[in-house]
Amino acid sequence: MTRAWRITTVTDAARARIAVARLAAACGVPTVERTRLATAVGGQLRQCLTKGGTWLLTLETTGGDAGPGELHVVVVPAPDGAAEERTPWTTGVPCPDPGRASGPCPVPDEPAALSEGLLGADEDTSVVLDELAEQEGLVAFHREELHQTNQGVLALHAELDAAGRAQREAFAAERRARNEAENARRRLTFLADASAELTASLNHDEILRRLPELLVPRYADGVDVWLFDHEDGRPLPADHPGAAVQAARTGRPQYAADHPGNLPGVEDRPPSALAPDRPLLCVPLLTPRRAPLGVLTLSPQGERWDPDDAVMLIELARRAGIALDNARRFEHNRDIAETLQRALLTELPSTPGVGLAARYLPATRGLNIGGDWYDAFQQRDGSLVTVIGDVTGHGLHAAVMMSQLRTALRAYAVDGDSPGRLLTRLHGYLRQLQPDLFATAVIARFHPDDQTLTWAAAGHPPPVLRLPDGEVRTLDAKPGAMLGIPLSQDIADHTERLTPGSTLALYTDGLVERRSQGIDPGIERLGAALASFDRAELDTDLEEAADRVLHPLLSDSERDDDVCLLLCHLRG
Predict the structure, then answer these.
(1) What's the mean pLDDT in 278-295?
(2) Angle 385-390-393 (CA atoms, 0-180°, nearest 5)?
């Protein structure tokens, strides 16, 4: 259905506006949409009145009785009007019930009707304002809700940020802790390995050589070891850094640099005049009794020392001092034992018809001095008694026991006993004197009249006999057990006829025994060395022969036990 109004005056415009509002209400258009439509139409009509002329407003509803449609409003200049504008203005709203507006929608000309229409428009406006106020309340509620949500989101972001920072800090702390643990493990491993290397040696010079090798360049750029030379432990005047002198005087570590070291247990001092641009850590080398042996001076790889590295180096210096003290004590005891050993060795007698040559060599490794010994002396009947033995144990105690056995043997030999009887009496003597000490020995007696060799052994390597024709025999007849073991024994004598030119070799196990091979290959090598001589060489120079026997047997090994060799040559 289509309706039209001519608009020329304000009254015409008011009537048309009222008609549009009423028709929209009749069609079931909601109040808000209806008010929006009436306001839009009123605004357009005001523009039309401002332009002047006659305008035509057309209302048209579409759709049927069965469903919704649409309400269209078109404003154009009247065909016979004076307005030049010809472009139509149009708007529309959905129309829920267009069938209800099938009839005419007149608007009376009376002022009362117009006022009533305007008041109706005000009622619609009031409804819109109420809805607007309600919407504003909802908007305010949602705005507050949005604000709270934003605050919550901000708080959540803050918590997440804090949690992220805490997590990053925890990861960083874990990495630091892991690095510190790894560094601590590395330092402890180095300290244990370095200590084992230093304490494994009892050689003073070797320890001093190993110290720089261990520390440079891993923990230090340079290492200097200053050892005191005199017995009271006071340092000799020398050109050393002042911090090293102070460390020697006080027994406390010193740090010399142009900046504080802040190292645990270390005193800070000015930089050294000898090395003003290089920090120096000076650590005293002390014995377990806190007596100073010297000073270890180290320079760092960088500008500063790591405090944990400094603590580890100070502990290593303490252990190095103990190792040096042990080495000095060991060398002192070894020198005493060697001196005593050599003082107790016999000067060989000159015996008609028998040549003698003896060699004693101390061990080159360890305190293996004092157990091996040899002796040669004559009995009343003119027989020559030769003996070689080995006391278990090493050092001063073994040397003292060796001297006691040597003295006891000479005393027993005055009675003219045979070698087996002498060993039997020595066995009883050692059991009585030192129940926990043992010894091995071989005694050989040469009789000048009948050229008979009588010999007996107690737990000792067998004698080796070289015959004049170069044949070598091992005298391995059943020997007795070691001297001093907790059992009674009678050690038997054995005899051997000799011819001029025969040579008997008595020796200790240090000459022939090797840990990787045992003793038998060594005895075979000794026999081969004896067999290599001409008879004339043995007759003329037995001393040279003794040296030539030792060389091939000892040149291929580190001598970790002392060695005795006694050659007895029966001249023609």
Answers:
(1) 90
(2) 155
Q: What are the angstrom distances between the C-alpha of 506 and each of 203, 345, 375, 438, 537?
A: 32, 15, 11, 19, 19
Bridge partners (DSSP) of residue 567 are 357, 505
Gap between the terminal Cα atoms of the chain: 168
Sole residue written with tokens 């760092």: 300
C-alpha radius of gyration, the chain, whole number? 61
Q: How many CA atoms lie within 13 A of 41 on its CB side?
A: 34
Q: Which residues of 352-370 are buried (b: 16+ CB within 10 A; e: fewer)?
A: eebbbbbbbbbbeeebbbb
Q: pLDDT tens digit string along 168-224? A: 999 999 998 898 889 889 989 999 999 998 988 888 889 999 999 999 988 898 899
Comparing C-alpha atoms, which of 476, 478, 405, 475 is closest to residue 438?
A: 405
Q: What does pTM read for this prediction?
A: 0.54
Let me know: does 477 contact 435? Beta carbons within 8 Å. Answer: no
Report whether pLDDT(23) > 70. yes
**Tokens 């560094």 — which residue?**
183
Q: φ, ψ for residue 357 (rounded to 5)?
A: -145, 130
CA angle at 15 for the pair 14 and 20, rounded to the nearest 5°: 95
Q: What is the pLDDT of residue 539?
A: 87
- For helices 307-344 and 204-215, angle between their N-to-C axes, nearest 10 degrees: 160
Query: Do 353 and 570 contact (CB within 8 A), yes or no?
Result: yes
Any bridge partners for residue 2, and if so which?
A: 60
Structure tokens at 4: 């039209």
Environment class of 57 (CB within 10 Å of its CB; exposed 0-12, middle 13-18, buried 19+): buried
Note the pLDDT tens digit of each residue in 480-501: 999 999 999 999 999 999 999 9
Bridge-based pairing state of the strands 354-361 and 2-7:
unpaired
The answer to whether 392 touches 445, Cβ cutoff 8 Å, is no
pLDDT computed for residue 21 by the predictor? 84
Q: What whole-number distance in Å separates Cα of residue 285 and Cα of residue 240?
A: 15
Burial zone of 498 (CB within 10 Å; 0-12 exposed, 13-18 middle, 19+ buried): buried
Of 473, 470, 465, 472, nearest in space to 534 by CA: 470
CA atoms of 355 and 374, how far apart (whole Å):
15
C-alpha count within 13 angstroms, C-beta hemisphere, residue 99: 5
DSSP β-bridge partners for residue 480 = 458
Contact assessment for residue 351 and residue 384, using Cβ atoms and an 8 Å cutoff: yes
Nearest to 250 by CA among 274, 272, 227, 234: 234
Residue 362 CA neighbour count, 13 Å, CB half: 21
Q: How many CB atoms lie within 10 A of CB 528?
A: 12
d(CA 480, CA 483): 8
Work out the angle between the directed axes of helices 542-554 and 520-531 (0-180°, nearest 10).
140
Phi and psi at 122, nearest 5°, equal: -65, -35
- Do 334 and 342 meet the contact criterion of CB atoms below 8 Å apart? no
- What's the pLDDT tens digit per position in 288-324? 888 889 999 999 988 888 899 999 999 999 999 999 9
217 preceded by cis ω (within 30°)?
Answer: yes
**Per the structure block, which two tokens stand in for 213?**
């090798």
Quote the tokens at residue 440.
Answer: 């091995």
